[in-house]
């Protein structure tokens, strides 16, 4: 937290609508967190259900402020595509990280935490901690 | 020795067989998956052939790394990063030699299969592409024809298995009795090798 750069958040879902809606929800629940760069990367480039490496790379580049990028995913090919892009080394901005977290609750926790100016480790911890919020 | 042209023929043969078998792959993916395996791979390998023609990579390693990158970009399903990682990792293991021996290729392909297992977390017996690829790599020392036969047997042997990875795993015991689409397309990939070698 040596400067005021904010961690970027990328939300990857098989569905463009789910990714966009979760981004809106997370920013809405985070109140004044409009400064947090959040980008959805949902569906395929053709608008179908699936995962697009290009959309993920573009979203990550768009939210990168130099403080790292937290990438949250739903399941299956979304997880595998992000892992494959990270393994490439040069497809995602330096400091990009796949966050092991529930998609909706993790996104809210990540955006709220990023809004405080927290670093990537803290954003990751907050998002992962969302796994522990039991509902019954 | 295997040159860049051999690996281009491999990709072209695989693209042709995936195109031919796309409906069957999607039909296999209907009861236990989301019914897109054939069309996803068809799109991916078509794009691979196109980019190989456009960029004309000069070495075996360059052919496979470019093909893998293209699959990650264009498939849109889990098979994209999985097959993409397989080809990229195999290509990287081949380095920048102009020609590679069959033994070098077998070793590189094994490294690629290991990377796929690390990425997806699947082991042999989980009813995935690994069940065709591991027997194929094991048989590769006896030639491409033997590898093709081993991959086909491995794919058929997924029928009685219960899926433990991917969407099919949600079905539990109901995944038993269906041949795995990923293992089936992996057998096509290995058959493409034999075709490229003229076997």
Characterise the protein shown here.
Chain B: Residues 5-195 form the DhaL domain. Chain B: GO terms for molecular function: glycerone kinase activity. Chain B: Pfam families: Dak2. Chain B: One of its GO terms (cellular component) is cytosol. The complex is a heterodimer of chains A (136) and B (199). In chain A, helix 4 runs antiparallel to helix 5 (120-129). Chain A is built from five helices and four strands; from the N terminus they run βαβαβαβαα. Chain A has one domain: Phosphotransferase system, mannose-type IIA component (Rossmann fold), CATH 3.40.50.510. Chain A has 136 residues and is an alpha/beta fold. Chain A has helices spanning 16-29, 53-63, 77-88, 103-115, 120-129; strands at 8-13, 38-42, 69-73, 96-98. Chain A has a four-stranded parallel sheet, with helices on both faces. The radius of gyration of chain A is 13 Å and the shape is globular. Chain B is mainly alpha-helical. Chain B has one domain (2-196): DhaL domain (Serine Threonine Protein Phosphatase 5, Tetratricopeptide repeat, Alpha Horseshoe), CATH 1.25.40.340. Chain B is 69% helix and 2% strand. Chain B contains eight helices and two strands, in the order E-H-H-H-H-E-H-H-H-H. Chain B starts with a strand and ends with a helix. At the A-B interface, helix 3 of A face helix 3 and helix 4 of B.
Report the span from N to C terminus of chain B. 15 Å
CATH C-level class of chain B is Mainly Alpha
Kindly state the percentage of residues in helix of chain A.
40-55%
The appropriate CATH architecture of chain B is Alpha Horseshoe
CATH architecture of chain A: 3-Layer(aba) Sandwich
Radius of gyration of chain A: 13 Å
Any idea what the CATH superfamily of chain A is called?
Answer: Phosphotransferase system, mannose-type IIA component
Which homologous superfamily in CATH is the superfamily of chain B?
Answer: DhaL domain
